[in-house]
């Protein structure tokens, strides 16, 4: 059964137990990291001071993907950027009749669409047509192409001169024989490579939804027919869920990765521009063509009890200039103890992590893999040794997530996921992901339907041959905020460029497996982070220096007490610096500030502390 359908199942979200099977009886080991570090500086981009996060869009359609996140941010290499997202600013949810693709462009000094404190109009690339799910690429001829969800008119592509406008897009029909949904796009020169699925209401080649590759060699004017490379058909997959794939291209090398909650994670690679393909298994699921509705019990040790399986639930892919394919992916532990009931299955939210693989490695082996075991033999006690990203154990209890109360619901996702991968010119590797932050500082007490902890964006970086501990790069964007769905521009340079969704409510309003959150506006944020992300540029989000900020909440005056304060920076919920205080730290006038949450970043001779303050 495909992940598209599993969203409709009742899922038991298991957070504190281990399945009682022959494979998994031990407690979860915790990575050695004691604290997470966080980025807290402004960044310089083209000699312009850019705040930690710049709002480039709004949406109250808060589901930016069903699974893996598309590449929705382009670094054009000349100081300019293009970005897209799923946009809807109406109140008719979940239907969202004018849902479409938002677009913004940075010309080196300013954004095409400037946002202040309130949502703008609902300008979308597609006008009034209901679609969305965009992926954007830039062609060598100076145009950009956006692939999106097929709609009733059948259109799924749009093109314009790079940065021309957000209203002047031209429709580009694909001449595919079937409508394609949830597309991913990559480009080499003027050749566009698309991967998606045939409309799930259609059974195609015995699959539903059927995974499909599509190519245009003339910038989207004409298209080759639908292609299913050998190894992708119904003998191997009964279907692939929406957004359960990623694609990239570099020169003649094209690669896409398929992943689904109860199937293999596989790489397909072409070295001749998409004519011929080779297949390589990244992670082997124990049962082929697993049937959620009437399958056999997964019981490799034959003890009559369902085994807990390690599976890949998100992935992203980038190809370097040498043709090497790099993959960042997240794994999840899952068990289906009654495969014949077409009902609930279990997944273990606390025991998932981020991994790295490239196609010079053997199948099933990753950074940190024990030499005696391959992926399909690894379960709870082993798989954590391969993590290069994880949920931080902020309270140093030795137990992941014991300081987490819920974490919002995002379908079959654990406490960390949605990886996105980027490379720089030296082939250093950067993988961003969202992780749930434990502790009361990251807890929303009035979340619906119960108190829940927020997610932040973390980045793991491999500089040379060493993976460094993850860094929280969104702490200044608001401690009490949900930061999720990060997409990296695949080409990093002096900076790592990221776009993501900011929300003051953990969880989802959209999605049948969401938790019914209010349909509030969500900001789409852009951020540029200097590289490499150096420990000298980050400080612990734990308040290791003695700082008191009171009263909190405050009305007119705030007092900040600490030894040898140098200065205080005040940020609003968007991470925009709004005050710089150099004296009178014990009598700060905040009467002119609007009601809401603010972050006080206190710099002293002893270090930096970040405090969240509520202004009434």
Descriptive account of the structure:
With 616 residues, the chain is mostly beta strands. 52% of the residues are buried. The model is unreliable at 1-51, 370-381 and 535-544 (pLDDT under 50). The longest helix is centred in the first third of the chain and has 4 residues, at 3-6. 1% of the residues lie in helices and 38% in strands.
Features:
four-stranded mixed sheet; disordered N terminus; mainly beta; seven-stranded mixed sheet; 616 residues; 40 strands
Task: Chart the SSEs and their pairings.
Layout: H1 3-6, E1 12-14, E2 37-39, E3 43-45, E4 48-50, E5 54-59, E6 73-75, E7 81-87, E8 100-106, E9 135-138, E10 143-147, E11 157-161, E12 170-172, E13 180-188, E14 191-198, E15 211-216, E16 245-250, E17 253-258, E18 265-270, E19 278-283, E20 309-319, E21 325-335, E22 346-358, H2 380-383, E23 416-423, E24 429-436, E25 443-444, E26 452-453, E27 455-463, E28 466-467, E29 471-472, E30 482-488, E31 495-503, E32 522-530, E33 538-540, E34 547-550, E35 557-562, E36 565-571, E37 577-581, E38 588-589, E39 596-604, E40 607-615
The profile of the biggest β sheet is:
7 strands, mixed
Secondary structure: number of strands? 40
Distance between the termini: 50 Å
Broad structural category: mainly beta
Q: Which blocks of ≥5 consecutive residues have pLDDT under 50?
A: 1-51, 370-381, 535-544
pLDDT averaged over residues: 79
- The proportion of strand residues reads 35-45%
Q: Can you describe this structure in just a few lines?
A:
With 616 residues, the chain is mostly beta strands. It starts with a helix and ends with a strand.
């Amino acid at each position: 059964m495909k992940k598209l359908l599993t969203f409709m199942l009742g899922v038991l979200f298991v957070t504190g137990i281990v399945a009682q099977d022959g494979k998994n009886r031990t407690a979860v080991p915790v990575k050695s990291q004691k604290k997470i570090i966080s980025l807290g500086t402004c960044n310089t981009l083209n000699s312009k001071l850019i705040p930690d996060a710049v709002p480039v869009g709004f949406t109250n359609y808060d589901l930016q993907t069903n699974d893996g996140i598309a590449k929705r941010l382009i670094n054009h290499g000349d100081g300019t950027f293009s970005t897209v997202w799923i946009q809807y600013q109406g109140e008719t949810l979940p239907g969202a009749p004018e849902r479409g693709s938002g677009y913004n462009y940075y010309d080196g000094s300013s954004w095409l669409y400037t946002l202040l404190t309130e949502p703008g109009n609902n300008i979308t690339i597609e006008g009034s047509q209901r679609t969305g799910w965009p992926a954007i690429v830039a062609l060598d001829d100076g145009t950009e192409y956006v692939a999106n969800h097929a709609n009733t008119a059948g259109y799924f592509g749009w093109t314009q001169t790079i940065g021309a406008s957000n209203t002047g897009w031209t429709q580009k029909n694909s001449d595919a024989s079937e409508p394609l949904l949830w597309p991913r796009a990559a480009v080499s020169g003027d050749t566009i490579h698309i991967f998606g699925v045939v409309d799930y209401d259609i059974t195609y080649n015995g699959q539903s939804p059927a995974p499909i590759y599509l190519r245009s060699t003339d910038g989207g004017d004409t298209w080759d027919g639908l292609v299913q490379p050998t190894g992708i058909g119904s003998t191997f997959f009964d279907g692939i869920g929406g957004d359960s794939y990623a694609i990239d291209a570099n020169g003649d090398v094209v690669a896409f990765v398929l992943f689904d909650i109860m199937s293999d994670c596989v790489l397909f690679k072409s070295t001749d521009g998409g004519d011929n393909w080779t297949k390589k298994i990244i992670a082997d699921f124990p049962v082929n063509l697993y049937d959620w509705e009437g399958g056999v019990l997964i019981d490799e040790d034959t003890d009559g009890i369902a085994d807990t399986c390690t599976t890949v639930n998100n992935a992203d892919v980038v190809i370097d200039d040498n043709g090497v394919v790099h993959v960042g992916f997240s794994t999840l532990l899952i068990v289906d103890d009654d495969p014949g009931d077409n009902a609930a299955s279990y997944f273990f939210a606390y025991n998932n992590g981020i991994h790295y693989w490239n196609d010079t490695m053997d199948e099933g082996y990753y950074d940190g893999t024990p030499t005696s075991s391959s992926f399909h033999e690894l379960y709870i006690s082993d798989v954590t040794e391969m993590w290069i990203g994880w949920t931080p154990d902020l309270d140093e209890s030795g137990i992941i997530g014991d300081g987490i109360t819920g974490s919002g619901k995002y379908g079959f996702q654990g406490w960390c996921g949605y990886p996105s991968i980027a490379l720089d010119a030296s082939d250093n590797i950067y993988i961003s992901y969202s992780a749930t932050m434990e502790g009361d500082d990251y807890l929303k007490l009035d979340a619906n339907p119960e108190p829940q902890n927020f997610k932040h964006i973390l980045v793991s970086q491999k500089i040379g041959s060493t993976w460094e501990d993850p860094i929280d790069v969104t702490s200044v964007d608001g401690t009490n905020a949900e930061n999720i769905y990060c997409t990296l521009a695949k080409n990093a340079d002096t900076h790592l460029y990221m776009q993501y969704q900011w929300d003051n409510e953990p969880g989802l309003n959209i999605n049948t497996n969401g938790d019914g959150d209010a349909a509030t506006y969500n900001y789409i944020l852009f951020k540029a982070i200097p590289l490499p992300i150096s420990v000298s540029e980050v400080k612990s989000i734990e308040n290791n220096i003695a700082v008191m900020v009171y009263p909190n909440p405050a009305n007119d005056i705030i007092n900040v007490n600490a030894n040898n304060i140098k200065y205080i920076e005040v940020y609003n919920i968007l991470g925009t610096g709004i005050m710089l205080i150099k004296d009178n730290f014990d009598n700060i006038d905040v009467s002119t500030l609007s009601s809401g949450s603010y972050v006080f970043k206190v710099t002293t001779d002893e270090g930096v502390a970040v405090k969240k303050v509520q202004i009434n």
